[in-house]
C-alpha cells in the first residue's frame, strides 16, 4: 500500500518538473522554496518503499574486502572512528558491516577516535553488529575480542605519538581499565603489532592524517571508509598505493555490504539517495536547457 | 541515539523541524533553535576542552596520579604560562602581554604547517606523479600522460609573475580546465554525501520520531 | 625499507601462517610468564626434539637518525622457514642489557619476517639481542646471539636530507625575491579578479549603508588558512575603516576572535580611525561547526550584509553560507585551500580564490614590494616542482617498469643530481 | 619593546619548529607545541565565552530586539556548563569521581547532547541537501568554457553513480567500453581529478611555505603589530 502510493507520488513529482522547466524557460524561474519541496519529497518518499536497488561492486571496494578477508583469525585491526553523528548515515552502515565481518572472521578490533564522538559511533555500530545471529554465534567479548580506547585529543599528533607506543596516548580504555590489563592489547606496543588499520573518516583529522602518519611514517596497512565528499581527496593516496582500498559514501557502503554478502542499512537508503540524485541532475538539466533557450533567443 | 529516552527523541524531532523551518524563512522557532544551539554547544565544547586539555593533558601531566609511574612533565607549565598571559587581555594596563601567546601560536602554526604540507603535499605528491609514462595498455598510458600534463598545466595556472599569454596562456587554460574537472568531480561526489545526511534525518523523523510520537500520545 | 616491500612481506605472512598467531598465543603465554628465566644457556641445553633450525646472521644495529631509543634487529630466515621442514611459525626476540647473560623475551613476529624494531630503549646503553625460531607445536630453536649494540642519538635526520635541500631551495628563492624586491624592482603580477573586486565590494556596502561580513574560516589559529584569512582581514578592515563602513567578524574559536580583534583594531589604527573600532563587532559564537553556521545564517538574514567574505578553512558549511548569502543578494568573495569545498564557492559566489591564491591574497592586497617578491619565489618553487614531475616521469619511463614510491623519489633526485653535477 | 618581543617569539618558534623536523632530539617539541596550543585555547575560552555572555546579557538587560533569544542562549549555556563541569547524573561518578567519562551513558551531559546538540547539528548539516539542489538549479550553468568543463565533469560523475547512467551507456560494445559512464567517471576521478588535485595540493604547499616565511620573517605581522596602548 505505502509502496504503491509512494511510487505514484514519485511519478507525479517527476511529471510536475515539466512545469518547472516551462517556468524557467519563460524567464520566470520557480523560487528556492519550490526546489526545496522537491528535494524533501525525493528524499522522503522512497523511505516508504521496500525495493532494493542493484549494486555494482567497484575495484576499490573489492580490494578492501579482499584485504580484510585475507586476514587470519586473531589479526589485530586498529579501527579509527573519526566522524560524528552528522556523517553517520553514510559511515554507520560501513562500520556495522565492518564489525560484523570482523567478528565473524574472529578478528580482534581495537577502536579509537580522533573525533570526540567517534568512539560512541563505534559503540553503536558494535551494538548493531552484535544483533546479527552469525556474530552472536561467535560471541565476541569486550576486552578479549575488541576494545574501545575512546577519544584522544591532539588530532594527527595522536597518531604520531602512537608510533612510539599506543599506551602513551591511551593509558586506559573507555571503561577506565588500564591498558596492560586488557587481554586483547597484550603484546601490542605500536603499529608494528597491528595487521591492519581501518579508518572511518568524515574530514580532518581523518584518512589523510592516517596516511601521512600511520602509513608514511610507521608503515601501517590502511583501508578506509569515507563520506562521499571526502573520497575524491583520498584518491591520490589510494592511487599512490598508500592505502589498500576505499569505500566512498552510501554507494560505497552498499557495495561493501554486497561484497561481504550482508545487506543492511546502506542498501536500503540507497534508493532515496538515487532519487534525490536524480532530482539534482534534473534541476541541472532544467537550469541549463532554459539557459541555452534564452541565450539563443537573445542571439537570434 | 539508539537508546535515547522518549522525551529525548521527542525534543530531537521538534528541534529538527525547527531547523528545517528556516528553509521557508527566518522565524521565531528557528531563532529559538539557534539560540539553544549556540548556548548548549558553546558550553559543550568548553566542558569537553576543559576536561580533555586542561585536566587530562595539563593537570595529570604536571601532577601524575600516584602509581601511574609517569614523571611530571614540567614543559607543560610553559603552555599554562602562555595561557595565563592570554588572560591579561582582560586587564587594560597589561593587555599587550596577550600578544605573546598569540605570537607563539602564529609562529608555531607557520613552522609546523610549513613542514607538514611541504612533506605531504609537495614532496609526496610530486613523488607519486613520477610514474612511467608508457604503460602496458593504451588507456593506462593515456592516464599517466593525463596526470602528468594535468599536474604541470595546473601549476602553470597558479603562476603569479608571468602573464597568461601565448603558449604559456594556452597551458594555463588547459590547467584551469583540469582544476574545473576536479571541482566538477568533487561536486558530483559531494551530492551523494549531502543527500544521505538528509535521508538520515528524514529516516529519523519518519521512523524513530513518528513511532515515539505515536507511543507518547 | 620501503613501505611496499613491507606490505608484500606481510601479505605472504598472512597467507602462510593462518593459525600461527593463535598457537603462538597459547604457547607464549607461559613463556612470557617465565620471563627472565629464559637465558641463552637454558635454551641451548634444552635441545628440544624436533626443534626447528635457528635463524642465522642475527644483526642488531642502532636505529638511524633517532634520539637513541630504538634498535633494529634483523636476521636471515631459518632454513625450516623457507625450505626444510617448513614448520616455523615465527621468531622470538630476546634482549639483554650491557653484557648480562639474562635475556628477556621482548617480542615475537610471524614466520617469513626477518626484522624487528625494539623501541623505547635508553640512550647510550649497550644491548645484545638474540633470536629463536619456534614451531606451531611450540618447539623453540637455540637462540642466535647478535653482537653488542649501543644506542646513539643523532642530530640530523639524513633520511630527510632531500626535504631539507628542496626546502632550502624553495624557501631560499622566496627569501631572495623578498630581498630583491626591496631594491625597488618592478615586477609583473597577473590579475586575480577576486582581489580586484575587494575594494568595489566594500564601496558598495558603504553606499548601501549595510555592513560587511567577514568569516575567517571555521578553524582556529592552529590552521595556516585561518592565519591567511586574518592577513586578508587586516587589509579589508583598513579599507572598511577608510570608507567609514562597518564590519562584523563572528568566529568559531576564541583564539581566532582574539586574533581578529587585534587585527581589526590595528587596521583601524593605521587608517587613523581607532575611535570607530568596535570590539563587540568581532565576537565568538560557538566552537560547534553547525551551531556557528546556524548563527551566521541568522546574522545574514537579519543584518543583511551587502558583502560577505569567506576566507579561510571551510568544510560542509561552505554552500550553506554561500546560498544564504546569495538569497540576501550579497556580493560574495570566497577563498579556501579545501579542495572539496572549492566547487561550491566557485558556483555560488561571485569570486573565488583557489588554494594558493588564498595565501597570496594578502601580499597582493598589501601591494608592498617585499610581500609581492615572495610570490615570485613561489613561482620558482613551481618551476622546481614541474621540473621534478617531468624529469621524474621521463626517468621513470626510461628506468624501471615498476611504479616509483617515496624511496625512488630520492633516487630520482640523485639522477637529476648526476645529470647536473656528474657525481653519484 | 611591546612590538619587538612578540616578533622575536614568532621568529624563534617558527624557525625552531621548522628545524625540529630535521633534528631528531627536537622532534618531541613538535608534539609539545600542540599540547601548548590546546592549553592556551582553553584559557582563551574565558575570553571567547566571556564575549558571548557579555553580548547576550547586554541584549537581555537593555531589552534590545530579540533579547528573549539571547536569554535562551545564556540559560542553555549555563545549564550545559553545569551538567558537564560537575558531571551531574553521571553513573560513573560513584566509582571514578571526577575522572569519570564525561560522556558516560546515562549522564545528563550525554542526554542533553543526544536530545539537543546532536539533532540540531545533524539537521543544520542536512540543510545542505536543499541548498545543493537550489544551487544546481540556479548556479551550475554552462556560462563559459570553464563552467562548461566543470558541469560536464560533475554530470559524468553524477551519472556514473546511478544505474540509469550505467544502463544508458550499457549498449556500448566492448571496444568503446572506456566511454561507458561508470568507466568514464572512474577514469575522471582517478586521472583528471587526480591531476587537478595534485596541482592544487602542490600549489597550496608552496603558498604555505611562502606565507609562513613572510609571517616568520615578520614581513607579514598584522596579527601582532598592535600599537603602544
Q: What can you tell me about this protein's structure?
A:
The complex is a heterotetramer of chains A (about 300), B (about 220), C (about 425) and D (about 230). Chain A has 2 domains: about 1-50 and about 270-300; about 60-260, Rossmann fold, CATH 3.40.50. Helix content of chain A is about 55%, strand content about 10%. Chain A is built from 12 helices and 6 strands. The model of chain A has no long low-confidence stretch (mean pLDDT about 85). Chain B has a domain at about 130-215. Chain B is extended, with a radius of gyration of 27 Å. Chain C is α/β, with parallel strands linked by helices and about 425 residues long. Chain C folds into 3 domains: about 5-150, Sandwich (Immunoglobulin-like); about 160-175 and about 370-420, no CATH class; about 185-365, Response regulator (Rossmann fold, 3-Layer(aba) Sandwich). Chain C contains 14 helices and 14 strands. Chain D has about 230 residues and is mostly helical. Chain D has a domain at about 140-230. Chain D has 8 helices and no strands. Chain D has helices at about 5-20, 25-60, 65-85, 95, 110-140, 145-160, 165-170, 180-215. The longest helix of chain D is centred in the C-terminal third of the chain and has 36 residues, at about 180-215. The chains are: A alpha/beta (about 300), B mainly alpha (about 220), C alpha/beta (about 425), D mainly alpha (about 230).
Task: Summarize this entry quickly.
Chain A contains twelve helices and six strands. Chain A is of the alpha/beta class and 300 residues long. The longest helix of chain A has 35 residues, at 265-299.
Number of helices in the DSSP assignment of chain A: 12
Backbone CA Rg of chain A: 23 Å
Helix content of chain D: over 70%
The most extensive interface, with participating residues per chain, is: B-D, 121 and 125 residues
Number of strands of chain D: 0
- CATH architecture field of the largest domain in chain A: 3-Layer(aba) Sandwich
Distance between the termini of chain D: 12 Å
CATH topology of the largest domain in chain A: Rossmann fold
- Tally of extended strands of chain A? 6
**Low-confidence parts of chain D:** none
**What share of the residues of chain A does DSSP label as strand, in percent?**
5-15%
Largest sheet of chain A: 6 strands, parallel
Largest sheet of chain D: none
Mean pLDDT level of chain A:
87
Tell me roughly what share of residues is in helical segments of chain A. 40-55%
User: Any idea what the shape of chain D is?
Assistant: extended
What number of structural domains do the residues of chain A give? 2
Global morphology of chain A: elongated
Q: How would you write the strand order of the largest sheet of chain A?
A: 3-2-1-4-5-6
